[in-house]
Design goal:
- This protein is α/β, with parallel strands linked by helices.
- The chain has one domain: Rossmann fold, CATH 3.40.50.300.
- Helix content is 48%, strand content 9%.
- It is built from eleven helices and five strands, in the order βαβααβααβααβαααα.
- A five-stranded parallel beta sheet has the order 2-3-1-4-5, sandwiched between helices.
- The radius of gyration is 19 Å and the shape is globular.
Length: 311
């Protein structure tokens, strides 16, 4: 099976640039890579994207918005992502289901349980193996978008017109997701230069590769056993062995998506937005597998995959 990696973050964080650079590097070392995006990624999805992003569609209600995003996602998963993973392809997606929880859940205030059920149905429970979140203060992201628009190098869509508070709530949603699932999520500072950020992304992915004993290039065998970690994409599982499970005779297991919804519905931290965000980021960084002692492979071995740019 293939590997599914998603990029998340606010508009203006540089996701499109960074995901393209990573795709180029993976292809250069012999991997089959599929680069896609949400909403869109298919002919049907692109039509839905046009409706969702049209700045004139101000009358769209939140319930219609989530169903349109989910329709585009269902088409993308069924037509593009699952077949590619079945062929052993590395799939890189610019946004995925986490955007729904962040923007429609936290931003719009829609019920998280309902969003979880809708997303479960649309994706069939498909969860990324790794999510790279490019974090950026809301005001910085919006300024970048406006500069790009002035240079005719980007689009200004319907969600960009929302209030700063809306985008702050969405960012809080992303950070809550990362805190709830720190093994799969990697938070990086999107304020860095393109070159520095790409170097950090490559380092994160190379550690992910070593941690899960994946072949460094397509022609090589896995570097070592993966210590019993189940990283099967087809089952929608993730490598967090601490998640609650049930035996075969104790009833159905919770899906990865419903499990995550339960995790982020914990009582939220009190205080200002900035203090809550700082606390969440601190907790994620302290428990993030990328910096834990479980990463026992040497840096020399990881450099075989992604030689980092010279500083």
């Amino acid at each position: 099976m293939g590997v599914f990696i998603t990029f998340e973050g606010p508009d203006g964080s540089g996701k499109t640039t960074q995901i393209g650079l990573l795709a180029d590097r993976l292809r250069a070392i012999g991997h089959d890579v599929l680069l896609t995006r949400e909403p869109g990624g298919t002919a049907i999805g692109d039509q839905i994207r046009a409706v969702l992003h049209d700045v004139d569609n101000t009358a769209m209600v939140s319930e219609a918005e989530i169903l349109l995003y989910s329709a585009s996602r269902a088409q993308l998963v069924g037509q593009v992502i699952r077949p590619a993973l079945g062929r052993g392809t590395i799939v890189l997606s610019d946004r995925y289901a986490a955007s729904t929880i962040a923007y429609q859940g936290y931003g719009r205030g829609l019920d998280l349980d309902s969003l979880g059920k809708i997303t479960e149905f649309a994706t069939g429970g498909l969860v990324p193996n790794m999510t790279i979140y490019l974090d950026l203060p809301v005001e910085d992201g919006l300024k970048r978008k406006k500069r790009a628009m002035a240079l005719h190098a980007g689009e200004w869509n319907r969600l960009d017109q929302e209030t700063v508070e809306f985008h702050r709530r969405a960012r809080e949603g992303y950070l809550a997701l990362a805190a709830a699932d720190p093994i799969r999520w990697c938070i990086l500072d999107a304020r860095r230069s393109v070159e520095e950020l790409q170097g950090e992304i490559r380092e994160a992915v190379e550690r992910f590769w070593c941690y899960n004993s994946l072949p460094l290039t397509k022609s090589e065998p896995p570097i070592s056993p993966n210590s019993g970690i189940d990283f099967s994409i087809s089952s929608g599982s993730s490598p967090d062995s601490s998640r609650p499970t049930t035996s075969s005779n104790s009833g159905p297991r919770s899906s990865p998506i419903s499990w995550l919804i339960l995790r982020i519905q914990r009582p939220r931290l009190r205080g200002s937005f900035s203090s809550r965000s700082a606390s969440i980021v601190s907790s994620v960084k302290s428990s993030n597998w990328l910096s834990s002692e479980r990463m026992t492979r040497t840096r020399e071995m990881s450099r075989l995959m992604f030689p980092l740019p010279q500083r």
